[in-house]
Amino acid sequence: MRQLPNFITFSRILVIPVTWYLFLREPFDWDTLVWGFPVPHWIIWIVIFAGVTDIIDGWAARKLNVQSTFGILMDPIADKLFVTTCFVFLVYLDRLHPIGVVLAISRDALMNVLRSYASSQGIVISARIWGKIKTVIQFVAIGFLVHSSTLLLLPWIPVLIVGKVLFWTAIGLAYYSLGLYVSAFMKQKKPNKN
Questions:
Q1: pTM of the model
Q2: 34: part of which helix (H) or strand (E)?
Q3: What is the mean predicted confidence (pLDDT) over 8-29?
């Protein structure tokens, strides 16, 4: 039972090869079936699975009082690997612009550098709600972007446009939360005595 939250976290990494396989099915549309269901249908279910496991793993660790260093480190890594995989394939499918994905990956790299440096200085920067909201919006955006480029959410709003708006909203929140992390780090940083 102690390893259940870590297994839940790791399951997001285990579905990445399946996600690759599905994204690479040609043509990527609702007529292409894999295991009896349309390819986008499978990916949407995997995105839902990833989103739910992202919520459940932390909750289970706290509820069972089995938080671990592995879980604390692997949870954001599992999220980033899964989300980045989806973003790269959405660029491949021409549903996202590469600059947006570069911005998303760059922000995550900057955040990792900041966390590592802060840790080396004995500073722990706790997660902020904006980063969590950003992750939720990213999962929802992926679902919309995978769904279809022709389906309408309402009679006048294409699902693809909703997905792109959500994606760029997540990018904005990502950099806003990065700014909050930098600010928190600067407040905690000890003055250099050199």
A1: 0.86
A2: strand 33-34
A3: 90
